[in-house]
Amino acid sequence: MLELEERIRRNGIVEGGEVLKVDSFLNHQIDVTLLEAMGREWARLFAGEGVNKILTIEASGIGIACIAAQVFEVPVVFAKKSRTKNIAGDVYKVEVPSFTHGGVSEVIVSKRFLLPTDRLLLIDDFLANGAALEGLIDLAAQAGAAVIGAGIAIEKGFQPGGERIRAKGVRVESLARIKSMEAGKIEFF
Ligand code: 5GP
């Protein structure tokens, strides 16, 4: 998606060669008009697939997923990073290593909000090693829900996540796929 690529070139900041900061428009300060255009693009790509719910992961996927959900006219569920052990109630759980913070989070979704009849679109801001997306796929599998595909804002194509997730047979639609990046120079596929 050209508009997103141009924005990344203009406002993205490469940190240490591995991490791209896009906090001026995507995940801290948020350009909602851009998010709406992204939502419309995913709606075009996944048209006719019967998506009835969007699933994302706390925290930075939530804004993007909410605007996409508005375009799809479906609810959005976000998997929560649980801060307390033995959370009350019936939940699906998975452990997800964090790319940006290190460490592992236990991620949960209430069984009430993921159903075997669901046709899920998974949404996240970044795809790096694929752990976050694999966690969401695992939660969907626990619920017996169908994963129609994944809508990713920015895929860092030089990291292995995209290949890993596509090898599982999951359709991944990344709106910007970075081939290489260094300070001041970002190339897309
Ligand atoms: P993965 O699980 O695919 O290794 O990493 C994806 C998650 O890590 C995303 O949910 C995102 O929040 C975070 N992440 C990965 N790479 C980057 C990056 O370059 N910049 C930012 N801001 N977040 C990233």
- Compressed to H and E, one letter per element, the order equals HEEHEHEEEEHEHEE
Bound molecules: guanosine-5'-monophosphate
* Secondary structure tally: strands: 10
Helix content: 25-40%
Tally of domains: 1
Shape: globular
CATH architecture verdict? 3-Layer(aba) Sandwich
> Strand arrangement, largest sheet?
5-6-4-3-7-8-9-10
Taking the sheet with the most strands, its summary is: 8 strands, mixed
Radius of gyration: 16 Å
What name is given to the CATH topology? Answer: Rossmann fold
Q: What separation lies between the terminal Cα atoms? A: 11 Å
Oligomer: single chain
Structural commentary:
With 189 residues, this protein is of the alpha/beta class. The protein has one domain: Rossmann fold (3-Layer(aba) Sandwich), CATH 3.40.50.2020. The chain has five helices and ten strands. The strands form two sheets. The protein has an eight-stranded mixed sheet, with helices on both faces. The chain has a two-stranded antiparallel sheet with strand order 1-2. The protein is globular. It starts with a helix and ends with a strand. The structure holds guanosine-5'-monophosphate (5GP). The site of guanosine-5'-monophosphate (5GP) has 17 residues, from strand 2, strand 7 and helix 4.
Features of this protein?
binds guanosine-5'-monophosphate, two-stranded antiparallel ribbon, 189 residues, Rossmann fold
